[in-house]
Amino acid sequence: MADRAEALRTRLLATFRVEAQEHLRTIGAELDAIASAPQTAGLEDLLRAMHTLKGAARSVGMTDFENACHGCESTISELIKASAPPAASDLQSLRETTDALARVIAGTQPATSLSETPAPTAAPAPSVETIRVEVGRLDTVVTLAEELLSPKLASAEHVRAARQLVEEIERVRARADRTLREDLRTLEQRARQLVATLRRDSRTLEAAVDDINDEMRRVRMQPAASVLDVFPLMVRDLGRETGKEVDWQVVGADLEIDRKVLELVKDPLIHMVRNAIDHGIEAPDARAAAGKPRRGKILVTVAPSEGGRISIEVADDGRGFALDALRDAAVRARLAPVDQIAAMSDAAVAELAYSAGVSTSPVITTISGHGRGLAIVRERIERVDGRISTRSAPGAGTVIRLEFPASIVTYRALLVLVHGRRFLLPLDAVERVFGVRQDEVDAALARGSMAVGEDIHPFGSLGPMLGLPRIAAAETAYGRTRSCVLVRGGDRQGVMLVDEVLGEHEIVIKDLRPPLLRVRYVLTTGLLGTGELVLVLRSGDLLASIHRRATESIPIASSAAPRVRCVLVVDDSLTTRTMERNLFEAAGYTVRVAADGADAWEMIQTEDIDAVVSDVDMPNMNGFELTAQIRREPRFAELPVVLVSALEAREDKEQGIRAGANAYVLKSGFNQANLLDIVRRLT
Amino acid sequence: MSAGDDVRQILRARAAALAAPLPAAQSDDVVELVVFRAGNERYAIEAIEAEEAIEVGDVTPVPGLPPFYLGLIVHAGVVYPLVDVRPLAGAPVEFDLQPAQALLFLSSERAIAVAAEWVESFVRIDTASIADGKTSDGIVLLDLQKLLADVRLVVDHG
Q1: Which of A7, A316, A534, B93 would bridge with A276, disulfide CB 3.0–4.6 Å?
Q2: Which residue has the higher pLDDT, B26 or A578?
């Protein structure tokens, strides 16, 4: 316990050293500027920096250092009050103290010497070695560390897949004959060794990644004081501006919080404090009349909350939320029907303050009153997975409580829309995103694969795969070009059809807990910036599913002849020709086209055609005549002929079959998938 | 018999003793229950076991889960599956729940949110008036520990 406290103090001191160097540099520069052109401007900045430095020293318990800062602060305050350019002697004494402070920080002068007359003794203070790192560079390292989360999550998946493989070998071995059984045993042993190795690597990776991220989080930790120290000045200024007297008190400023989180809660805090002064605390006379002390008070309490979270409460002793005014404002903003708002509980009414457009302030001041503030506060807090709640007692004051995690780890993912629902795909599982014409999508769906560049990948639609209900109205809304995502997982790839790609998002990972141990297709969940919870899909499961579908839909394709087959498309309509050409080409056929039966007959005799898909109604030689012509020639007796026609009469179909066609497809019920299936069966 | 078996037997006997029915309830045995409505029934869970009762905002549906899982909600940084207790309690499911509120249960091993159309009240009930798992005014008592341990809740699509 003592060790941990000591370790914490060491870390705090290290943080303080870096921060102090920064402030001392600012102070030095300000002093230089004032000395080169004696003036009062710049003294305020100097005061601010000195004050922050004092606060930081206090939070690490460096009393001598704090006192020295306090001395400087008093001197500067006097200079500001005097509102005359500072004398050279004053600047000189400030400069000497600042230099002494810098020596203490550098470890070349003991802190105790600050209470004596400055004497540059070279007794080195025991110190932790520190280096200054640019915040931007630190953030880069943090981001890199967070990127390791993806392979960490994936490696556990790989172990699982490898284990399944072992089980499969086991099953095959049980059914195999004796000679094969020996070979399979060896194979199984090797696979088991591989699983063991993978599992070990996965554990090592997991431990290392978690450690790195924990350590990075620690590196980013800063005392809450680093944000709260700017407030006393702001409170004083606002008090002056509004004619109110306000005391400011902070409890728990030394609690450490992730810098990323601190940055995000800083503005909401500023907003809450401005609100407390502008709306909460009454003017001195009004307070006196209400039997309260003339000076109002704002108390900020920073405290650890359950589950590694932090709470910050901003409490004022002002007039409290004006619930009736809030009700009126909500009615003005048309948030809900009048009678409904009238029936709301006080707690529910206080909640209304967080809705956009609700302001009780009759006058829009520069400080607050625009009615957007608290809505933005809530939005910002929810972005870091935080919550906001309010307690208010009329006449006695308001307490606004923020609660958020002490640190956050973010993760980048692609947000997609499928059948009206939003899902996330891990960014490292997304190879590329592209648009595809509707007719190509239909053909790819029919054959279960799609060509992307040089490669042919299994293809599936994400909605049906996840078992989502269809939204009929949405189907036509996505127009002629559909969005596809090429997904990668392990050594597998596959293309998935989605309704819309909504872009990359930074999310906060929220893992599922038992009893949800492993949910098919779900890797984990993520919080979007809006606070919305969205499922992160597991690429391994998705790929397994589309690979399975692909092999089911083409049972013989893999053993079929390696030669590329050629389809002759015969139609007098250019549109139909083009459409059918696309259909067959996308399915991996080469395609020749002819505009009528006579053309077609010539090509059949001279070229290597594997199947004929022909219209019936055509000039020169119609489809029936073409079919009959083909069948007359013995060498084409087996050449598959499919007639596609708008003629729906039964006798036409019979005539087609009589002429020797293998299939007769009606254009009215014309379904490309059906046509493709027929040709595939025949070739 | 090994020493390990001995220990196991002792432990089993101890566990059995803990699980034995309580001696006849005295009239001053009072439990505090949180009562909520789901479907056509009112249910009650011992109040000390409920972490918190919250308003249900957005529910994220999860494809492929059993139908009594209504989806996921997030509260205070924890993701809870929202559960319709009716089928688990053996009650008929005549219509879909419109869960406006939820009772949260969180332990180191489990996170569950029980869906309620509304959380009615906290009541103090004499344990003597409980018969057949129901209070005298027909509220169904749920044994939370049993509910949490229900194997039907476990989802492991291996």
Answers
A1: A316
A2: A578
